[in-house]
Amino acid sequence: MLICLLLSWLSVLVISFVSNKIGRVLPYFYFVADSNKILAIFTAIFMFLFAKSINIGSNKFINLLSASTFGVLMIHANSNTMRKWLWQDVCKNVENFTSSSLLQFIFHAVVCTLVVYIVCEFIDIIRKKIVNILLKKGM
């Protein structure tokens, strides 16, 4: 998993370096931006296997978060329109990547990711509560 992560980061840095050397903007995230790229597939598989092997027992908070993880995925990444609006228009990730320092970009990426996750988690929890209420009433 670590080797795949390092290769992912290295691919972004190498493409960025080559872009600067040739004076042309190349697609920085080519090897990791799409889920069907080989590096992204191997990274995802090894991360899943790593997470699967961790034994953390049972925890109510983790169970609450994990129960909504699929909902979070469906809310923020289900359509190209949502991804464009959220990551390009609202979070302005491309602008921050090209115009800020590495430390500022990392901070921006972490904060945006956490805020999006928390908001989507909240939306999914509310959705489940509404669905449970409707099911109890017999719709």
Structural class: mainly alpha
The number of helical elements comes to: 7
Binned, the helix content reads over 70%
Large-scale geometry: globular
Report the count of strand segments: 0
* Secondary-structure element series: HHHHHHH
Which ranges are low-confidence, i.e. pLDDT below 50, for 5 or more consecutive residues? Answer: none
Could you outline the blueprint of secondary structure elements for this entry?
Elements: H1 2-22, H2 38-53, H3 60-67, H4 69-77, H5 80-90, H6 93-99, H7 102-137
Helix pairs in contact: 1-2, 4-7
Polypeptide structure, described:
The chain is mainly alpha-helical. It contains seven helices and no strands. The protein has helices at residues 2-22, 38-53, 60-67, 69-77, 80-90, 93-99, 102-137. Helix 1 (2-22) runs antiparallel to helix 2 and helix 4 packs across helix 7.
At a glance:
The protein is mainly α. The protein has helices at about 1-20, 40-55, 60-65, 70-75, 80-90, 95-100, 100-135.
Features:
78% helix; 139 residues; 0% strand; mainly alpha
